[in-house]
Amino acid sequence: MEEIIQHFINGLSIGSIYSLIALGYTMVYGILQMINFAHSEVYMMGAFFAYYSAKFLNLEKSPSYSTLIIILVITMILCSLLALTIEKFAYRPLRKQPKLNVLITAIGVSLFLQYFAQIIFGADPKVFPNLINNQLLFEVGGVSINTFDVTILGVSLLSMLGLHFLVYHTKMGQGMRAVSHNPAVASILGINVNRTIALTFIAGSSLAGIGSVLVGIKYQKIEPLMGTMIGLKAFVAAVLGGIGSIAGAVVGGLVLGISEVLVVVYGSSQYRDALAFGILIFILLFKPAGIFGKNTIEKV
């Protein structure tokens, strides 16, 4: 029993990171009806922003929660600026074009950032700075709780609560929800659609930046292609929960994370990545709208 609880905690830790990244996919889809495949590269760039920020500020040898907070804030700001640049110069000019054009552009931006990162940062993996020390906090019934897991779960939970407050309890969030329902009507009502879309990209990319720092803390290794697989898994999590649904992205990420850990422990680590794509195929065949999504009819 203790073993199952321990695996469940590990699954929650990984799943919460998937949820953070999946929220970026689902928010952009909810407001623009597009899949932003470059989101995974914003996450990757976030890891390098954190890496070089820690080195530049000489914080890599002083692990503490204040160090973590400083690096998180810097990473969120830089990821937001990157996402704003992508939105303004790559997506905004194509907003009235067919969705296929935007999809191809997103894939192009994703590939560009991957190779750009390999040229600038080098293709070799880098050891992520030790932002906080990992130590055993306590044991309950044979279940070990360490600093990394508590930090990842705590930061993820606070980030999700912050996003919930932003979307459902602020004027800015009202604008986001109005634009997601009907941008033309929202514009007539005085909502600045361009600014609202930009704020959506800022919120999603900030969460991706947080996710990249948490992954760096947990796995201690970053590389220019690190966004590919975790981006695909986060996308699967968003589809599983119902893409466009914020609650769905959170639940989908947690379900995927826990399932992965259970497959690795009770099956084989070789099936870890295959599980995500198996879930994607299953959900598209039997419930394409996802757990919290609604079926819609599109005219062709």
Question: What's this, in brief?
Answer:
Helices cover 73% and strands 4% of the residues. The protein is mainly alpha-helical and 300 residues long. The strands form 2 sheets. A two-stranded antiparallel ribbon has the order 1-4. Strands 2-3 form a two-stranded antiparallel sheet.
What does this structure look like?
The protein is mainly alpha-helical. Helices cover 73% and strands 4% of the residues. A two-stranded antiparallel sheet has the order 1-4. A two-stranded antiparallel sheet has the order 2-3. Helix 2 (39-56) packs across helix 9 (226-241). The radius of gyration is 19 Å and the shape is globular.
| Helix content percent band | over 70%
Number of helices: 11
Looking at how many chains there are and whether they match, the oligomeric state comes to single chain
Secondary-structure-based class equals mainly alpha
Strand order of the largest sheet: 1-4
End-to-end distance, in Å?
53 Å
Beta-strand percent range: under 5%
Order of helices and strands: HHHHEEEHHHHEHHH
Shape: globular
> Radius of gyration, rounded?
19 Å
Major β-sheet annotation:
2 strands, antiparallel
